[in-house]
From TrEMBL:
Native source organism of the sequence: Microbacterium suwonense
Protein name in the entry: IclR-family regulatory protein
Residues annotated as domain HTH iclR-type: 24-86
UniProt KW keywords: DNA-binding, Transcription, Transcription regulation
Family matches, as Pfam families: HTH_IclR, IclR_C
Length: 274
C-alpha cells in the first residue's frame, strides 16, 4: 500500500526585492523552472511546468529552450518531458564539496528508519523552502510517498519545514509569514496565520513538529530541526507514515527517537572540520 503525493508548487521568495535588479525577473522565472524540473523524478511536461511556475506556455517554452542550450535542462525525445541537464550535475558536484552534508548524515537517517520502521528523511532549508536530500525506507510495508529526493515544500507546510520555521528568530518567522500570505489559499485553513502560529508555538514547546495528514489525508509526519555550528536551523530530519502508525500512544516515543537523531546530527555538524 502506498499513499501518493499531490503536485507540489514552487514558491518564489523575495520577489519584491528582485524587481529592483535589472533582468532579475527573467532569472527568477528560469530558476523557478529549474527547481520544478529537478523536483520531477521522471521529468515534467511543458503544460505542468508552465502551470506550476505561473507562466504562459510560450514563456515557459522560451525559457526552457534557453536553459537547454546551456545544458541545464534536457528534453526526452520520446515523451517530450523536460529533465535536468548534464551541466546541473557538474555544477552540483562542485557545490557539493561546500554544501553537501549527505555523507555526514546518511547513516543517521538510515538508523532512524531502522529504529522507527518508518520512512526517514533529511531535508535542507533553501530560502523559503525545504528540499528533500535523502530518503531511507523503514521495514514497515505500508509507506507514504508524500516526500522523496528533490521534492520541495514551503517552510511551515511539511513537518520538516514546520520544525525549521519554529526555531527561526521571531523576526525571521514574522517576515516569512508576511511574505507568504498565499499559504492558506494554497495549502488549506491550517496554514493560515493564526493556526500556523499556534502550530509553530506547539512545535517549539514540544521540540518536534507534527503534521497530522494536512498535505495528504491519512499520511502523517513528524520533523525535528538540525542546527549548524552557529545554532541556526538549516536542516531537518523527519518521519512519514500512515496515520495509525502515529497514534497518541506511540507518537511520543517516535518524537524522542527523532530528537535524539537530530541532536546527534547537529553535534556531528558542529564537530566537522571547517
Amino acid at each position: 500500500m502506498v499513499i501518493e503525493t499531490s503536485s507540489v508548487h514552487i514558491m518564489e521568495s523575495g520577489s519584491s526585492s528582485r524587481r529592483t535588479v535589472p533582468g532579475a525577473q527573467a532569472i527568477a522565472r528560469a530558476a523557478a523552472l529549474l527547481r520544478l524540473v529537478t523536483a520531477s523524478s521522471d521529468g515534467a511536461s511543458l503544460h505542468r511546468l508552465a502551470a506550476d511556475a505561473g507562466l504562459s506556455r510560450s514563456t515557459a517554452h522560451r525559457l526552457l529552450s534557453a536553459l537547454r542550450l546551456e545544458g541545464l535542462v534536457d528534453q526526452d525525445p520520446s515523451t517530450a518531458r523536460w529533465m535536468p541537464g548534464p551541466e546541473l550535475y557538474l555544477m552540483g558536484a562542485v557545490a557539493a564539496s561546500r554544501y553537501d552534508i549527505t555523507e555526514l548524515s546518511r547513516d543517521i537517517v538510515r538508523s532512524l528508519a531502522v529504529k522507527t520502521e518508518e520512512s526517514a528523511f533529511l531535508s535542507a532549508r533553501r530560502a523559503d523552502e525545504t528540499v528533500c536530500l535523502i530518503r531511507e525506507e523503514g521495514p514497515f510495508p505500508i509507506r507514504s510517498f508524500v516526500l522523496s529526493e528533490g521534492i520541495r515544500f514551503p517552510l511551515g507546510v511539511a513537518s520538516a519545514g514546520l520544525a525549521i520555521l519554529s526555531f527561526l528568530p521571531d523576526h525571521d518567522m514574522d517576515a516569512y509569514l508576511e511574505r507568504h500570505p498565499e499559504l492558506e489559499e494554497r495549502w488549506g485553513r491550517p496554514h493560515g496565520p493564526g493556526p500556523l502560529r499556534t502550530r509553530l508555538r506547539e512545535t517549539k514547546a514540544r521540540g518536534y513538529a507534527v503534521n497530522p495528514g494536512l498535505i495528504v489525508e491519512g499520511s502523517w509526519g513528524i520533523g525535528a530541526a538540525v542546527f549548524d555550528r552557529e545554532g541556526r536551523p538549516e536542516w531537518a530530519l523527519s518521519l512519514t507514515g500512515v496515520e495509525f502508525r502515529f497514534a497518541p500512544d506511540r507518537l511520543p516515543q517516535l518524537g524522542r527517537t527523532l530528537l535524539a537523531h537530530a541532536h546527534q546530527l547537529s553535534s556531528r555538524i558542529a564537530g566537522a572540520r571547517r
